[in-house]
Amino acid sequence: YKRQPSLFIKKTSSAMIMVLIYVDDILITWPNSAELEALIVEFSKIFALKGLGKLSYFLGIEVLYDAGCIYLSRRKYIRDLLSKVQFLECKGTDTPMSTGLKLQKETQGAPTMQHLLACKRVRRYLKSTPNFGLKFV
Predict the structure, then answer these.
(1) Rounded mean pLDDT for each run of 10 residues along the chain, 137 residues in total
(2) Other beta carbons less than 10 A from residue 126's beta carbon
(3) What is the pTM of this model?
(4) CA 125 to CA 121: how far, in whole Å?
(5) Is 125 exposed, middle or buried (0-12, 13-18, 19+ CB in 10 A)?
């Protein structure tokens, strides 16, 4: 396994520029819009780019803006996951695991009923935390 860098950071005397690349998505932060535009022009000489404006969703993370704050949330990701496994209407729980639960590795490699119940418990926990997120000021 060889680690490939995907976050590139350049610090100057007046700013910090960050470029995050994941497969075919590029996220660029730069405090100066004129310099940002120049960087985009340079990148567009090499890559096919499409500006999507203000960041709202990236790698399963919702980005919300309110009164000078930035909120990072997994709400949409969690909702999509629960919908996919038909758990949108399940009852939530406060903890992701039952106390005392011991999951053992099966010798045949097949998950047991305990494993299935543990997965369901995690889904129920996710259901009870739909607004999970971080706040940046």
Answers:
(1) 75 81 82 79 86 82 84 85 89 87 78 88 86 57
(2) 21
(3) 0.61
(4) 6
(5) middle
